[in-house]
UniProtKB/TrEMBL annotation:
This is Enoyl-CoA hydratase/isomerase. Pfam families: ECH_1. GO terms for biological process: fatty acid metabolic process. InterPro entries: ClpP/crotonase-like_dom_sf, Ech1-like, Enoyl-CoA_hyd/isom_CS, Enoyl-CoA_hydra/iso, Enoyl-CoA_hydra_C. Belongs to the enoyl-CoA hydratase/isomerase family. Keywords: Fatty acid metabolism, Isomerase, Lipid metabolism. Pathway: Lipid metabolism; fatty acid beta-oxidation. It comes from Actinomadura verrucosospora.
């Protein structure tokens, strides 16, 4: 966790990331990324998503767990709405050039997709509002620890948009198509008790216990053999796509690697 002993983040820790509303620290095997525009409820700009991608690319070797958290009263209020009126939205692709818009969105999605890398486990520490792109950021992480004041909301359809920051797949996988439709097309808010019941949060704790709960989880994650953690994450994420036969083969392949690492000569 980020603390007084935390090492400074490598290269990317400069002013650009701060301007993008991001801060990150590396402390041994743990990187902590903080959405850091509390006065705007950590609303995110294109620069934020590009900054997240840059952090993913800059993670030092040896980092095994990445924690994402929000400064202030909320995890994130989603996209910075001022970008729709032009402010800070330079380079905004308006859809008139389909190929350019596709490339533009793909670049922003890179801020989220690296969170699935098998060499790290990603933990979202979510409190207060997690709206739109903020909800999708939590969904992009492997594990969500939520405070009991959490409010998840997929707001995009209410604004005439679709969720496009990688969130639709994990949402459907977690809650099922019917519930995903209901949540997205009503843009209603999911509170902590329901989030736990739906599986949107693996752990729910009182607001003042969030940091301690995340610390405890991180310690448990780090206690597992690193090679086994990487192989198991890869295996579990493959499971949804594979047939039983393919998954059995994947289990054999991963276990062969583990046995070689543990006992091979
Ligand atoms: N974009 C830009 N500014 C924002 C955003 C946002 N998404 N969310 C909050 N802010 C600003 C507010 O304008 C306000 O600024 P001000 O102090 O200059 O007036 C400040 O942050 C604090 O916000 P409040 O509304 O005063 O805080 P409160 O705690 O009462 O409400 C809430 C928080 C519920 C998040 C509310 O601000 C809100 O509904 N924000 C918009 C959420 C939204 O629609 N996001 C887009 C989702 S779709 C997507 O992400 C693609």
């Amino acid at each position: 966790m980020a603390d007084a002993n935390a090492g400074a983040a490598p290269e990317t820790a400069g002013g650009e990331l701060a301007e993008a509303g991001l801060r990150w620290e590396v402390d041994g095997a743990v990187a902590t990324v903080t959405l850091n525009r509390p006065e705007r409820r950590n609303a995110m700009t294109f620069a934020t998503w590009r900054g997240l991608a840059e952090i993913g690319r800059s993670l030092p070797e040896g980092v095994r767990v990445v924690v994402l958290r929000g400064a202030g009263p909320s995890f994130s209020a989603g996209i910075d709405l001022s970008m729709f009126s032009g402010e800070g939205g330079e380079g905004f692709a308006d859809g008139s050039d389909a190929a350019a818009t596709d490339r533009f969105i793909a670049e922003l999605q890179e801020g989220y997709t690296w969170l699935r890398r098998p060499d790290i486990v990603t933990v979202a520490a979510v409190h207060g509002h997690a709206i739109g792109g903020g909800f999708q950021l939590a969904l992009a992480c492997d594990i969500r620890v939520a405070a009991d004041d959490v409010k998840f909301c997929m707001k995009e359809p209410a604004l005439g948009l679709v969720p496009d920051l990688t969130g639709t797949k994990p949402l459907v996988e977690i809650v099922g198509i019917g519930r995903a439709l209901e949540l997205c097309l009503t843009a209603r808010t999911v509170h902590a008790e329901e989030a736990a019941r739906l599986g949107l949060a693996e752990i729910v704790v009182p607001r003042d216990g969030l940091d301690a709960a995340v610390e405890e989880l991180v310690a448990s994650l780090l206690a597992v053999n690193p090679g086994a953690a990487v192989a198991t994450k890869r295996l579990l994420w493959e499971a949804a796509e594979n047939t039983l036969e393919e998954q059995c083969a994947a289990e054999r392949r991963e276990q062969t690697g583990r046995l070689r690492d543990l006992f091979g000569k």
